[in-house]
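Suppose you are handed only these lines of text.
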Amino acid sequence: MSDNRLGSGQQDLFLPEGTNRLLGRNAQRYNIAVAMAVANAIKTTLGPKGMDKMLVSDLGDIVITNDGATILSEMNVEHPVAKIMVDIAKTQDKEVGDGTTSVVILTGELLKKAQELLDKGIHPTTVIKGYKLAAEKSTEILKEKAQKVDIDNDSILQKIAMVSMGSKNIGDEETKTQLCKIVIKAIKQVMSKDASGKVVIDHDFIKIEKKPGKSVADTDLINGVLIDKEIAHPGMPKSCRDAKIALLDVALEIEKTEVDAKIEITSPEQMQTFLQQEEHMLKDMVEKIKKVKADVIITQKGADDVALHYLSKAGIIAIRRVKKSDMEKLTRATSGKIITSLDDLNESDLGYAGLVEERKIGGEQMVFIEKCKNPKSVTIFVRGGTNQIIDEGERSLTDAIGAVSSAIESGYYNYGGGAIEVDLANGLRSFATDVGGREQLAVQMFADALEIIPTVLAENAGIDSINILMQLRNKHKTKDGISYGVDIFKEGITDMATKGILEPMKVKQQAILSAAEAAEIILRIDDMIASRGKAPAGGMGGGMPPGMGGE
Ligand code: ADP
Ligand code: MG
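From them, the structure of the protein bound to magnesium ion can be written out as follows.
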């Protein structure tokens, strides 16, 4: 364990000093404290007024970010419960791409409220049951309060994208607006409909390439694929318009095994013939490419110098050793087919790009395969002054891609700034009376926990959160109150519809369901055993209770 870890060197983060087993209440109390510590660690980053965190590794690598999932995964947490918290942020990131800070804060708060119930003598299974009911009901209320997303209404999508980028420090309003436009264009370009007519957006086909240099405002959408490789031979053209492209999974070289096979060469003449034969075979390969009139070949495998020489003589551009994932993107961008044997190569298999060009970017060559016709795979080329900025730029883009596609895929959005959480809390409080029994108390606590979002948004803006919360609760009980949230610029509440603070319903839904699930997992643990004994100086020594997730 090194010193930069959460609770560094304190073995007591797993089990308190001098203990090797925690039972019942003690285990729960302890785990809840850990979960709350993790949640508290990232609270200050929530919302546009949230702060950034600088994470410094042992090796001195620096990450500056506001992104919940990134902070947690860089934090190097050791405690199994802390790992569960990291996992929910990662899942949120993977499933919906945004709301990672919120999900962790909400989990922490659900557990804090659970502790209050446990202290009153309520059994954990009652809490869990109540939380489950509340989470299910929340899904209903979310839908009830949601507005429909119109795919053709770019202004709504733009707002959703802007909110997800809101808290990231990557440039001014204008730069962010431009990045959001790029994201919407990219998504619309790659999205398709499945057999049932449902819109599907595969994020793999929005490639993000980054290179330091210029500024974030120079980030660009490329209608095609950018490959971090150079053109294989100096004699080849550096650029080609209206390019016909052969996509190959073929090595343009004589297979090693063939050369290695025992060949006894006893005279210089024999050597000569052997080399000539080899050359002949390579020349033959190039002829097959020439025959279909390809201007460019891109191969996943290698190409040897002789082959490159002939290709270059024929004026054909070659790019070799391209990643498999890039080849897949190329088929979708150029509409070409990947060919595994040159004998099968036909003109109809070739892809098309309006321009194939090698450009020198920040001292390195990159090949742009762009201006493709209706490409189903595109690239966002991120620029920025420093590595830290382009990394945060990439994270902002992924968040916005996640937010916009969640909005399109699920078809609904809610009001942000804590507005929807207040609606949920109000709704759950009246639902609690229907639930009755002791579970009712858990449903009420769930409602209280949701209000942590507007509370923290206000706190991070330096505003009196208790007062704001009261105003919001009351406003939301009125007819037009639904869209009111925290005004982080003025002490008060304001209309999120006017401000354009919109969030995809799917992001909220995922956050609530996984926070409830994580809380349940943690509450169910009532026995913590240091299974391999404690290492004398090294903390928990890997003793993780069974079934506790983590990595
Ligand atoms: P997360 O990782 O959870 O997405 P963010 O730091 O992106 O965390 O903050 C998201 C929260 O900030 C959401 O609740 C959102 O509604 C709120 N928010 C974003 N922009 C504004 C704004 N201009 N005014 C008030 N709240 C905002
Ligand atoms: Mg966000």
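What can we learn from it? The pocket of magnesium ion (ligand 2) is lined by residues 98, 164, 399 (CB under 6 Å). Residues 227 and 367 are 5 Å apart (CA to CA).
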